[in-house]
Structures are given as structure tokens and as C-alpha cells.
Amino acid sequence: MGRSSSWLSLALDSWSLGLDASAVIGLRAVKLAAGGSAATVEAQRMVDEKIAAAVDLQMLAMTGGLGPTMHSAAARSVRHYAGKIRANGRRLARPKR
Q1: Sign of dihedral through CA atoms 96, 53, 29, 44?
Q2: Which of 11, 35, 79, 80 has the fewest CB atoms lying closer than 10 Å?
Q3: pLDDT tens digit string along 9-31?
Q4: Residue 46's pLDDT is what?
Q5: Dist. CA 9–CA 45, nearest whole Å
């Protein structure tokens, strides 16, 4: 992420975000399908994280934190979600102890 300020770069970052999100969806689906208390915790965590990420992004938008242009707003929105998705991917891919 963050290569240049071109729309092509933003498109590639968005595409990468989609791939990462798909991987996280798969990892979460496996965890949820296994059932049990871990699945319940993961389902609640997923909902809580989605709400928090949306509220955080809305606050950035309302306070000017996404920048003055459409491009900067889109790029910062992608970066906002990308970090969260990557963190979930790392957490879900860790082997169980």
C-alpha cells in the first residue's frame, strides 16, 4: 500500500484489500464452522470489530481526517480497513496452542 497517489495504485490497493478480506472470510468461516465457545467469541468479535471500524472511519470523514480530495479519502479508507484486515488474518492464521 502507499505506492503513489495515482488512481491505478488505489485500484491495486483496493484489489489487494479484497484478496486479503477473502482470505480472512475463509479463515473465519472455518473457525465458525467448528462451533463451540471459540466460534461464539469469534462471531461476537467480528461484529464488534466491524461496528468499531465503521464508526472510526465515519469519525475520520466528519473531522476531515480522510483528506481534502476524493482520491485521498478513498486511499485513506482503504488503508483504514487494510490494517485491520491484515491483523485479523495474522491472528486467525496463527496455529492453536
Answers
A1: positive
A2: 35
A3: 999 999 999 999 999 999 999 99
A4: 96
A5: 31
What DSSP line would sit under the chain, residue for residue? --S-SSHHHHHHHHHHHHHHHHHHHHHHHHHHHH-HHHHHHHHHHHHHHHHHHHHHHHHHHHTTTT-SSHHHHHHHHHHHHHHHHHHHHHHHHSPP-
Quote the domain boundaries for residue 22: 7-93
> Count of domains in the chain?
1
Q: State how far Cα 73 lies from the chain centre.
A: 16
| 1 within some domain | no
Q: Tell me if 57 sits within 8 A of 77, measured CB to CB.
A: yes
